[in-house]
């Protein structure tokens, strides 16, 4: 019995547009972000997939993306579990800062290290490894068992929380995951084997639009 796991990064948020570090702050989607979510929903609707349950983070931009997708696929009342384990990476003292202002304060090299290293967190925040350390246990205890029972599970979350999952699912190295940018609003459809490994992966959209 093989289940289906669909991962979607939220559409563009107001702070993505303003080039701000967002993390656990809670801005809404932009008009473009709303359209990206709807486009992702339409792509899923074309596959004919219907879901048994959905998971999302504790943040508005992911929850709204999920709602828009569920509206497009005709499942607006789907049972949804929200948990901060799926929240974006916490950028700590960088949260709310313009990325150029952060470079002016700490230096371009230091900010680049915080953004692109695997295990060096910004002050008061999380590294990508830290993010994975809260995402992976939640995936193993709450999400994966449903997929392995043959359920179809939709997860709407964030660039870094989803990168943590993709790293495991796609068996990527630390260096490979740091180079991976997930497109906003683009569903990644995984079919899993009974041993939780990936049987197939299908990305429903053009990855060249990643930003």
TrEMBL record:
It catalyses: (2R)-2-phosphoglycerate = (2R)-3-phosphoglycerate. The record marks 158 as: Transition state stabilizer. The keyword Isomerase applies. Pathway: Carbohydrate degradation; glycolysis; pyruvate from D-glyceraldehyde 3-phosphate: step 3/5. Its EC number is 5.4.2.11. Keywords: Gluconeogenesis, Glycolysis, Isomerase. The active site is at 10 (tele-phosphohistidine intermediate), 88 (proton donor/acceptor). CDD domains: HP_PGM_like. It comes from the Bacteria. HAMAP family: PGAM_GpmA (MF_01039). NCBIfam families: pgm_1 (TIGR01258), PRK01295.1 (NF002339). Belongs to the phosphoglycerate mutase family. BPG-dependent PGAM subfamily. This is 2,3-bisphosphoglycerate-dependent phosphoglycerate mutase. It comes from Shinella zoogloeoides (Crabtreella saccharophila). The gene is gpmA.
